[in-house]
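[#protein-structures] MJ: dropping BTB/POZ domain-containing protein At1g30440 here for a structure pass
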Amino acid sequence: MACMKLGSKTDAFQRKGQAWFCTTGLPSDIVVEVEEMTFHLHKFPLLSRSEVMEKLIAEASEGEDGCVIKLTDIPGGAKTFELVAKFCYGVKLELTAANVVYLRCAGEHLEMTEDYGEGNLISQTEVFLNQVVLRSWKDSLKALQTCDDVLSYAEELKITKRCIDSLAVKACTDPNLFGWPVVEHVGPLQSPGGSILWNGISTGARPKHSSSDWWYDDASSLSLPLYKRLISAMESQGVKQEIIAGSLTYYAKKYLPGLNRRQSSTESSNRLAPVGLGSSLSEEHQKLLLEEIDHLLPMQKGLVPTKFLFGLLKTALILRASPSCISDLEKRIGMQLDQATLEDLLMPNFSYSMETLYNVDCVQRILEYFLAMDQGTGGESPCSIDDEQLMGSPSLTPITMVAKLIDGYLAEVAPDVNLKLPKFQALAAAVPEYARPLDDGLYRAIDIYLKSHPWLGESDREQLCRLMDCQKLSLEACTHAAQNERLPLRIIVQVLFFEQLQLRTSIAGCFLVSDNLDGGSRQLRSGMVGTNEGGGWATAVRENQVLKVGMDSMRVRVSELEKECSNMRQEIEKLGRSKGSSTWGNVSKKFGFKLKSQMCSAQEGSVSNQNKINGKALKDGKTKENHGKHKKNLSIDE
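AK: finished. structure tokens for BTB/POZ domain-containing protein At1g30440:
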């Protein structure tokens, strides 16, 4: 730290308990009381340097103990007046960044101007401030920290503003260009030219370049009012928003202990990981700090990590922050919800009612903010895209990621027995249909909810299952749903129907692949005879055999499904006759079959064509006839 020595005499002051004595050999003729300390001094050195002391000495009445003066409001208190008294006596005095603000304010308070001696305290401290302190980052920071104790005087003398402006200018400039003592606490000393010093000798070596976050730790040592002013000054100087956001994040983590508990291992290993001091702050002060951080954070996507924003939101809910603060944090998270993880969304419910284990309402609002932003930025509508565009379009990636995230969240909160059906349905239905390429995740969440809420009626179960589209279930999900006793009968029938269609489509595709492999095998066999027998040919044969085994198993599964559908049809027709309904078309309408008959005929035709190509036919001719009747019934229904 830079310093400057004033005066030439040796220290002639001695302290005895709560009193200071001047040991010049002459008896003291004045006593100055400052706080709990008394100073036994002489009138002349004081009145020759201070206009205020001159007036007080003239007004003071001498009693039995001589002249007594009480100074109750001197900036810096007794410690600062001790330095002032030594300055008046010409004793050696060292000016530093830690005491210059106190002395400058005390000199102003005591009116120690040039009219009372050349090189008086005001001029000496001003020179030191301007020529030494304000040229150094570290000294400017230290001087600014001391302004908190004498803020009214420092503001009047514009010391606070000068220190803040000095720091703001240095923060937006590369410190390596000027060799500021910014890196004194993290690296070697530098010469004014910027080279590294060894025993005071310039080595010519240049220090490593500092990153843009070099000032975060220093700035976090300021009180919140001064820190806010520093951030505002940096913004006016053109410091980038992401750098400002990084400093705010660092400051919040340092003083809000709840954020440090959620800090990941990678963050904790960072050299800039802050040390939590939040235990020294009351809950009220933490709440005020959190609201100020939210106010200062730029409202821009991607500047702040999503995990940090969730940490702020959870802390705000715990501390009962203002509704506007909570709403702002939810909007910030909604802007970048696609960057969140399932762990982030699982926020406990901190309300007094404790209706649910997790705060589902908060997640619902965050999702609504995200969807509103997505539509505002030109998000695609479900009518203007198809499945291939959905899977491959980069602009739709965020919405599909959020849909997958919400489905996972629904599966996590579904076991909560206190989670009401309308709230579960509202969150699931909030995700647009086009955002889910597959409904497997939604089916899993619905299944868990039905398992955890066995008391739901049949109508509620059907209403819940309408959230998913059976046509968007994978083959594995269809197989599971067809055997799921928790699903309503209507849903099971729909699942079986669409599963059969998927199997037929898969078999048709396998036939095409098999034909291509057979043709390729013949070409491979004719081209490799006499050159490399066994290598590529053996591999092709094995792959062909594996495909044929797979097709055989699919045929068996299709046959089983056809028998199940035939049995179900007979049972339903019996029920229909007992109620006066004998047509399969009414039953199909009841169970919601909406696919056109041409789809079934197209699938059946592709399978039959492939059977002809391979020289094979289905053994069971009756099964084919049943499918033809089934197709006609579906077409009648249309």
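MJ: nice. Residues 3-172 form a domain with the Potassium Channel Kv1.1; Chain A fold (CATH 3.30.710.10).
AK: one more thing. The chain has 29 helices and ten strands.
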